[in-house]
Specification:
GO terms for molecular function: oxidoreductase activity. This is Short-chain dehydrogenase/reductase SDR. Keywords: Oxidoreductase. InterPro entries: NAD(P)-bd_dom_sf (IPR036291), SDR_fam (IPR002347). The chain is globular, with a radius of gyration of 18 Å. Helices cover 41% and strands 13% of the residues. The two termini are 22 Å apart. The protein is built from ten helices and eight strands. It has helices at residues 24-35, 47-60, 76-85, 114-130, 170-195, 213-221, 224-236, 241-244, 246-253, 287-301, and strands spanning 15-19, 39-44, 65-70, 93-96, 142-147, 199-204, 262-265, 275-278. Strands 3-2-1-4-5-6-7-8 form an eight-stranded mixed β-sheet, with helices on both faces. The protein is α/β, with parallel strands linked by helices. The model has no long low-confidence stretch (mean pLDDT 95). The protein has a single domain, classed as Rossmann fold (3-Layer(aba) Sandwich), CATH 3.40.50.720. Bound molecules: NADP nicotinamide-adenine-dinucleotide phosphate (NAP).
């Protein structure tokens, strides 16, 4: 498969929500989906940065149909208020893209460790609150695309210390949050299937793409050495943000994309290249872990899904 952004089909009449739409992969995803005619709701934690990004997209796509909405995934009240504002708009695709990586330990406004709280719990809450807004009545299934990372393969869900209160390692916490993304995406697909809902859930990873992601950790810890190393790596090794957005664009728009799948770049070390279907880690397919994480996430966020628990063999 050598799928490119030129293969994104006509999106006219569709509404797509992108979290973290103002930077990196979210911005490129927004640009290509808007170029093909969808209304894109740019969910950003800063509306100022969101409007700047919308201007950037409009320079390329003058008739882009964009709306910037505040949605801070580190604040459940902000997530609820965003979902309330969307209550009457059928959403064809929700792209859970926003994220932070390898930052020093901090907490969200609700007291969750930030990487677990923003990358995983914020998106669990958002998806649950938008469930009834998904366009599932007729036609193509609604899609929920959750952006993970290849690093999920070294992740483990530490149920005894989910929030890194006893021991915190910034990379372990990131890997845990990204494994949680894949476990969530697969469990959501199983629940859609069990409910017979006209919706699909898939996970993606972008390989290694040159974005702001790599600089947040060094910025916050003040590590000039790590900042310099990241700059070098991003220049020499990373692919562009445009390329990194392709697995997301494929999962969100390609007619052939399938619920329960995991898509990522198929080139060198799975860090670059055109998107393809891949296998995720063995742990990510563990249904017991997925169910337990689902229950814990519902309890922590206070957002309960109106979806039945999968019974017996329902493979995503
Ligand atoms: N780039 C890569 O190589 C790579 C590799 C693997 C996985 N990923 C994943 O790709 C996704 C996108 O990252 P990126 O590379 O595009 O990084 P990026 O350029 O840093 O963009 C991250 C986006 O997330 C937003 N965000 C951060 N905290 C938020 C919060 N509390 N609420 C709402 N939005 C928040 C950021 O907003 P602000 O601009 O306001 O901070 C920004 O829009 C992430 O999930 C990341 O884990 C990226």
């Amino acid at each position: 498969m050598s799928w490119t952004a030129d293969d994104v089909p006509d999106q006219r009449g569709r509404t797509v929500v992108v979290t973290g739409a103002n930077s990196g992969l979210g911005l490129e995803t927004t640009r290509e989906i808007a170029r093909n005619g969808a209304t894109v709701l740019m969910a950003t934690r800063s509306t100022e940065r969101g409007e700047d990004a919308a201007r950037d997209v409009r320079e390329d796509v003058p008739d882009a149909d964009l709306r910037v909405e505040e949605c801070d995934l580190a604040n459940l009240e902000s997530v609820r208020s965003f979902a309330d504002r969307l209550a009457d708009e059928p959403i064809d695709v929700l792209i859970n893209n926003a994220g932070v990586m390898a930052i020093p330990r901090s907490e969200t406004d609700d007291g969750f460790e930030a990487q677990f709280g923003i990358n995983h719990l914020g998106h669990v809450a958002l998806t649950g609150l938008l469930l009834e807004t998904l366009a599932t009545d007729e036609g193509d299934p609604a899609r929920v695309v959750t952006v993970s990372s290849g690093i999920h393969e070294r992740g483990e869900i530490d149920f005894d210390d989910l929030q890194g209160e006893e021991a915190y390692d910034k990379w372990d916490a990131y890997a845990q949050s990204k494994l949680a993304n894949v476990l969530f995406a697969y469990e959501l697909e199983r629940r859609f299937l069990t409910a017979g809902m006209n919706a699909e859930s898939m996970a993606v990873h972008p390989g290694y793409a040159n974005t702001q992601l790599q600089f947040r950790g060094p910025e916050q810890s003040g590590s000039r050495l790590r900042m310099a190393a990241m700059k070098l790596m991003n220049t020499v090794v990373a692919q562009s943000a445009e390329m990194g957005a392709l697995p997301t664009l494929y999962a969100a728009t390609a007619p052939g994309a399938e619920g329960g799948a995991y898509y990522g770049p198929g080139g060198l070390l799975y860090m670059r290249g055109a998107p393809e279907r891949q296998a995720s880690s063995d742990r990510s397919y563990d249904e017991e872990t997925a169910r337990r994480l689902w229950a814990v996430s519902e309890a922590l966020t206070g957002v309960s899904y109106d979806l039945p628990e999968p019974k017996g063999e329902v493979s995503a």
